[in-house]
Structure formats: C-alpha cells, structure tokens
Amino acid sequence: MGKVVKFGGSSLATSKQFEKVLAIIREDADRRYVVPSAPGKRYAGDTKVTDLLYSCFRQANKGQDFSETLLFIRERYEEIVQGLGLSLNLDDEFETIRMNLAAGSGEDYAASRGEYLNGIVMAACLDIPFVDAADVILFNEDGELDARKTDVRIAARLEDLPRAVIPGFYGAKPDGTIKTFSRGGSDITGSLVAKAVHADLYENWTDVSGFLMADPRIVKDPVPISTITYREMRELSYMGASVLHEDSVFPLIKEGIPINVRNTNHPEDPGTMVVENTCNKPRYTITGIGGKKGFVSVTIEKAMMNTEVGFGRRVLQVFEEQGMTFEHTPSGIDTFSILVNQRDFEPHEQKIIAGLHRSVQPDMIELEPDMSLIAVVGRGMRRNRGTAGRIFSALSHAHVNVKMIDQGSSELNVIIGVENRDFEAAIRAIYAVFVSSEQ
Ligand code: ASP
Questions:
Q1: Ligand 1 neighbours by CB, cut-off 6 Å
Q2: pLDDT per position as a tens digit, 110-134
Q3: What pTM did the predictor assign?
Q4: Which atom of ligand 1 is nearest to the CA of 182?
Q5: How far, in Å, is the centroid of ligand 1 from the Cα of 37?
Q6: Model confidence over 274-333: pLDDT tens digits?
Q7: Cβ-Cβ contacts under 8 Å for 123 (sequence gap 6 or more)
Q8: CB 40 within 8 Å of CB 237
C-alpha cells in the first residue's frame, strides 16, 4: 500500500531542513502519507515551537500579553514559508490562533498549533490535501485515545486520498476540544495512520541514524543497530533509550508493520528496522545494552519463606498499596528482593517497611540504595552458549561487583544490578566483549 512517513521537529526546524524532507518524500512515490511534527530546535539551546506555544498559553491564561511570543512563532513559520518560496499566507491562521488563545482555549489547543501549521505548510509544498488530525484522531470524553474509532475514521478519510498530510501530536474529543498526546506524540499519530491504511512500512525520520547498540555518552561511537525486534526494543527502551515514543510501537505490533527509523540529515544511512519478528541473524551476539541508574533493592529475609503460601503476593501487595510498580523480583530460597525506582520509593519507604513487617513478619529487611540496572538484550543470545559467562568475566576484569542477576526465560535479556558508580564501567566492559571483540 505504500509508506507512511513521519518527520520529527528537528527535521522541520528551518526551510533548509524542510528542503531535505521534501527531497526525501519526492524521491520515493511510495511515501504517500506524511505526518509532520512542529518546528523543533534549530541549534542547541534553541526553543521548540511547541514550547513557545505552551508559553503563549500560560501567558494568555494569566491574562498577560502573549503577542511577542506569538510573533516569535510567526517568525519561525515566515522563515520556512519564505525560504521555500511558497506563496502561502498564514495571516488568517495566526489571527484565529490569537483569538482562540485570548478567549481561553486550552493548553492542548495551543500546543497542537505547531503541528497544525506545519501540516498546512507541508501540504502546500507538496501540493497534496491537508487532513486535520482533529477530524481523524479521536479521543473519548476522558481524554483517552479511542483507537478503534480512530482506525476506522482514518481508513475512511484516506480511502479516496492517495496522498495526504496529517499533522502529528493531536486529535479531538467528541465535543471537538483539541487533545494532544504526551510529548513526542507525533510518533503515535504516524503509527496510527500506518496501521489504519495497512502501510507496508512506517518510516520515522529523526536526527539520528536509528538505535545505537549503547548510549553514545558512555560508549564512544557505538555501532548502529540494523534490525531490532519489538520485544528487544521494549527491553532496551524500558531501560531508557528513547528514539521512538513508546506508545507508537504497540499499534503496529499486531499488524506486523515494520518501522524504519531514519536520519533526515543522513538519508543515505539505512537506519534501524524495528520488526515484529525476523530470522535475520544479528551481526553480534547481542543487539544492544540499555541501562538506568537510581534503583533500590528491598530484600526480605525469612527462614522457610518458600513454604508459606501467598508470601510473594503479600509482599507485592504492600508495594501496590503504596501505588508503586516494581522492576524485578529476584529471589533465593529464604530471600525475596524487590527492585524499585529509588526516587519513587523514598517518600513511601517507612510505610513500606511497616507494611512488610505487618504482612509477612520477616526476619530481616535490607535496603540497598544507589543501584543501577543494565539490560543486555539480544535475540542472538537464545540457544547460544557462554553468553552469561562472557558478561560476567568481562565485568570481573573491569572490577565491577555484580549485585543482582536476572535472566528472563525468553533468553532475550540478562539484567544485571551493579552499584551506580560502576554503571558506566560495566556497560563499557560488556560492549567491549561483545562488540569490539566481535568486529
Ligand atoms: N511537537 C511535540 C513535542 O515537541 C510533539 C512531537 O514533536 O512529536 O513534543
């Protein structure tokens, strides 16, 4: 059926960036539906149009004069329109936005105008129809996406439009009020469109050449990942690597539609293919390493705990009652540890300790703060002998003490807990043994 292409804010920040995007779209006739973000940062320290719009809203909300902020926004679009030589006049659009902001239209309305205006500019450049996302991305009264209705609506609206521009990030509630997704949500719009039209591919164009095997702030020039499965990505993204908005991936899983993350500034790079499944053999044993600092391990010791029916449930219930989620629960015969986010845990600490004493009468509760979790992820690890051995010998050579180990039975990931101060050294050591040495 063709491709749905989404372009992020930095890809559309200036007329020069727009030109790159237009060349990419024109190069492939299959790139039929275009989902633009709002103009993003032009350079480090610049402000995204979306953030300027949030400022406008706050000023308007306080009854302050927001005309100067709106003028800044206007200048961003003028540069794009003029730089591209378009004969597009946005006077009426800006006047409507000004009036609506002054009349107290909501924060989401304000934020959404960045994508809305960029959609109009994009449609004018390509000379193809503009489909307002408010007509096709449908939220319910509570502000939750109505995925089923949205799917039907997009499919019906685009049925007779072989090409169109649909702005990202927002939709509307049944009463017509504009509602946005969370930040970075244009990725979700792109994926909803791709699902509804049964696209062959969802291309997500950004300013990096896909996913990297490790965080470039920790490992120098990490190798890009050429193919990653949804499940691998989930294991890595949950540990902190966010190239795609998490909610953009799930609508496509069931459809088996692949996502290709590409770099607008380096269109020659193949980027990363995110797929439901593949027999493509990964180049390295591991697909990637993710990690996050700031966990605390709560270990409960009690003799004969393994004979107590409902012990684990009662422990987890204490966390549940405090509204806390947990990351991992490694256990021994008489020990049970719960790894939780330290910042979330601290305000509830004493209540949880008291709750545990009450509900399971432990012999001892031990708290181990300042822990990091590292996920070594890869479909290539499956049925592959020696992976765990290599990880732990690399860590031992790097003098990293391993505090916790958890291997999912899917054999897709090994999670390792280390002290925060060993975090970077551990990631570098694992990268070196699996990537540098396999090159
Ligand atoms: N413009 C919005 C943001 O800055 C949405 C997006 O770019 O996807 O978060």
A1: 8-9, 37-38, 48, 50, 114, 168-169, 183-186
A2: 999 999 999 999 999 999 999 999 9
A3: 0.88
A4: 9
A5: 6
A6: 999 998 888 899 999 999 999 999 999 999 999 999 999 999 999 999 999 999 898 999
A7: 129, 130, 164, 165
A8: no
